Amino acid sequence: MFNYQMMTRLNETGLFTWTSQERAWLRMMLNHPAAPEALSPDTLHKLHDMLDGEQEMDLRDYLTEKAKSEENSVFHPLLKPLRQIILQHQGFRLTGRVRNGRISSDQFGFPYKLEYSMVKKEWYVLWYAPLYSKLMSTKLHSITAVEAQLLQPEAASEYADKIAILTEKRKTTVTIEVLPEFNQELSRILYAFSCFEKQVEYVEAEQTYRIELTIPRNEVDYVLSKMRFLGKRVRIADNAALRERMSETAAKVLARYTESESEAQPERTYEEVRNHPVEGSFTKADGVDSA
Amino acid sequence: MAKESFDKEIQFLRMLSLTSGAYNRKQYAERLGISVHTFDKTQRRLKEIMQTVADQRSGSEQNKEMADLVRFQYGESAEPMLLFLFRAKSMKETEVQRLSVLLHTLQDQALTAMELLDACCADLPEDLALPDEKTIRSDLKYLEEVGVIRKESGGRPYRYLLQQDVLTGLTVEEQLELYDFVDIMANTQVPSVQGYILRDSLKKAIATSYPQEEATEPFIYKYHYYSRILDEAHLYTLLSAIRQRKHVQFLYYSPKKPSSYSSQNTNPRFEREAGGRSNRILPLEVVYDHQYGRWYVIGYQGRRGFVKFRMEGITQLEEQDSIEEEYMIELKKQWAEISRYSWLVDTGNTVTVQARFFHPQDGQRNFILDRVRLQGQWGTITPETDHTFLYEIQVNGTTEIKPWLRSFGSSCEVIAPPRLRQEMIKEWKEIAQYYESVREDVQLPDDDEIE
After folding, report:
1. What ipTM is given for this predicted complex?
2. pTM for the complete prediction?
3. In a designed cystine with B119, which of A58, B55, B105, B113 is the match (CB 3.0 to 4.6 A)?
């Protein structure tokens, strides 16, 4: 089933196959609290019936997830209606809460994607606001009402073109350099950046890696938070504004510490500070770190 | 399917997707511990699989570099670009032909083995040798084992039928509903490979009723670690070993070393340099780390006690003998005790970390508090002043929590332990130095807006 040539052959006639492993996975997911929210009672009932005889795939005793953001719900009731609007190339009128408790009412827009943030654990609708010629992103939780609005196909396709242009225009690049003394931790660093569109450059002579990220302009804060996360292993190489931001943050952090230090105890000298052991490579997960 | 070749493909794809564009052929081959010739061959094979499996959307992709093919493009689709690895299983051409004829024949009706044999003989191309009854029976057994077909109830001779209740039992709307559910769950939960495979077949199934692209690509997932699915290739072997209390043996390549694989049949000198180490452990638990999108396996290794390995370094994984249940229970209990306060997998001494968090400036939503609540695991939050709160947590060692605390920038001040506080200060001084040249005496608003 898992061979690609086999798959192409089966696809030729639209043959559908599913294996017991896939059914076991689905059965496990049907036990997730999101299932009754995402599926109508009828569908859920039919699926339970279908999978009744399948093996259980209970991983709780074997699989542990760490450092996970708390997850309230992976489903939102507005996903279904919005998904239908997108499917039918319709527009919508939107009413919702915006910052500072204000209500933004009855805005016209053309939705094009539903986006889930793995970090914030929130659903957003991405839409185009023709009135301002802007791309918008609205948290489903702050929407109070949404109403579909019929669109002419020409309008929909004109909006779609606009969205593509604006999305492209909104992109920016940030180049990050890995300090060569941390090349040993390259794998970890690249994993941390693997959630971005990126291009890596390696200068063999200097053994230096530069990671060029391509991101929407409004996401630079998230990149900065990743930079702070990785600390001294990486530095922003090319972007003056972001370099300034990092520099500013470092100064502010140090000011915080100096402030509270001077309240509590005499300030330590830099030398004293330096003699403390440095942070080693993060965790020793090479099997050598036996407890 | 040769085990070695699957390992090689995982390492190959991981390196390609993580370091996209960094190395030339020779450098890639060197780091993978294979010859340039093998590199080219593997690349050709993977490219072919990818192009066969991917939607035949555009012919323009034919000339694209492999690195560009697996390059992650956000915003277009939630298509898991590395899923095709799981289609890389080799099968004999004759097997492919036979199995697909069998399944196609079963598409409309339930049939017995003998009827299927006849159909096979009629439908297979003339140049192929005709299968005998034994071959057909063993094919059916395989298809039944993977669960694609099942025996119809009733006596002998058994009639086989295709498992396609999802198509026949659900309405078109319900199929779309299921597709959405599978898409969301596969993208937000672990493990996901089975879900992605199901998503793949459902996608093709619903395309007849919903031909527009918006039908199958309404959702995207922001800042999601796609490469995590590569390690799921080992996941089921490890889970089954844990379930059966079996030892496993594997060759481990530390991700800290520059090379991540080496083919088995090179000369011994080269293999020593490549640095894979053989390990035999009793696996107890698999840990998925959401912070980086990496997988770990925790095991017990006799004299060395409890050990942790990153799944990305594991190759040539093999199951071995099993142990007594009581012993397993005892080890699991011990490990649960030791790792109780691990931020990820660190089992260092338990310390209490205390940090002060600062609310954002007036008028802004308190995204700092939101984020500490969301990500602070079992730590406790206590309001302190109008513009600060305290966060306290017991953790095994401070190295794993430190990046998280640091990511808050000036919104977080570590109070205890004093050593962690000093480390933070020292590190921020170093970071400040990196940007010294740009540091001027300007005051910018400190909007460390973070997710």
Report:
1. 0.89
2. 0.89
3. B105
